[in-house]
Design goal:
The chain is of the alpha+beta class. 58% of the residues lie in helices and 15% in strands. It contains 8 helices and 7 strands. A 5-stranded mixed beta sheet has the order 2-4-5-7-6. The longest helix is centred in the first third of the chain and has 60 residues. 26% of the residues are buried.
């Protein structure tokens, strides 16, 4: 047979073009197929990744659909179980912390009650032994009022008015005991009296002002107690004209354990802890003191104490 070279060259070019077309079609088909298969496998994983990022941000109310390949399904089921377990643990932790808070509050309250009772009875015994019967009558009346407010029908929250009355009763007892070594003043804004406060927060502070302030000075002591509303908060202030507190002592006075448990062991630190257990770290005690001039203890509480009070 005879074939012309031009015909052979033309046929060769057609075959080459056909092969090139088939290869391009195969490449495009494989690419599309690969994308489809990859998407089918990767989409559930990407969805799982997005949900995990939400968990990292603190969102736990999520649940993903169990779909995809067997491995992805197992990962999805495990993820849902993990989130559920984390939510259960968080809820349990909140319940445990609340129980701990109530327990610590009760323990601190139990520490304070025997403390001021001991000092009050000690004052009455002292007056009786010295035949100061008129003073005993005054102190017993003050003690009765002290107990009435302390009990408060089992309520942990009382009005600011009752808390100030409780402080006044304690000061009356101690003033008689110390033979008028100090004078006291109690002042309050009318608007603050009806608001709520944890009970027995002023008495330990006043006790510290007596024992570590005015008791040790030669001149007559002055203790001022006030209550006011400032910056949408309740502010109690207990001020004395005692020796003051050294800066190095003041720096850690609310953190360290007190040494003298008979006098100041349940004072500043425990009141500070009680308030923060009830309302958070933004509240509590701030102390201002200057040597040889005196000390002012600021007690900050939320304005609506009943809303955040102990249960």
């Amino acid at each position: 047979g005879i074939s012309y070279v031009d015909d052979l060259v033309a046929s060769k070019k057609k075959i080459q073009l056909f092969i090139l077309f088939v290869l391009m079609f195969a490449f495009v088909f494989m690419t599309i197929a690969s994308i489809f298969v990859s998407a089918k496998i990767s989409q559930p994983i990407k969805r799982l990744e997005r949900q995990m990022k939400k968990v990292e941000k603190g969102e736990f109310d999520i649940c993903i659909d169990v779909s995809g390949e067997d491995e992805v399904k197992r990962l999805s089921r495990t993820f849902n179980l993990m989130v559920t377990r984390i939510k259960d643990l968080m809820r349990q932790n909140i319940e445990d912390q609340e129980a701990k808070r109530r327990s610590e509050f009760a323990a601190l309250q139990a520490q304070i009650n025997p403390h001021f009772l001991y000092n009050t009875l000690d004052s009455i015994v002292w007056m009786n032994e010295n035949s100061k019967y008129e003073g005993v009558t005054t102190m017993v009346a003050a003690l009765a009022k002290l107990f009435r407010i302390s009990i408060s029908r089992g309520n942990e929250m009382i009005t600011v008015s009752d808390e100030l009355e409780h402080a006044k009763s304690y000061l009356i007892i101690q003033k008689i005991r110390y033979k008028d070594k100090f004078e006291f003043e109690i002042d309050s804004e009318p608007d603050v009296l009806s608001h709520m406060t944890p009970k027995l927060i002023l008495q330990p502070i006043i006790e510290n002002a007596i024992y570590h302030g005015v008791e040790k000075i030669h001149e007559k002591g002055i203790i001022k107690v006030s209550a006011a509303i400032k910056d949408d908060k309740i502010l109690f202030q207990v001020t004395d004209n005692g020796y003051g507190i050294k800066p190095e002592v003041l720096a850690g006075i609310l953190d360290r354990e007190p040494r003298d448990t008979k006098k100041s062991g349940v004072g500043l630190k425990n009141v500070h802890e009680r308030i923060q257990l009830c309302f958070g770290k933004q509240y509590g005690i701030k102390i201002e003191s200057c040597l040889d001039e005196g000390t002012t203890v600021n007690i900050w509480l939320p304005l609506d104490g009943a809303a955040g009070g102990a249960k």
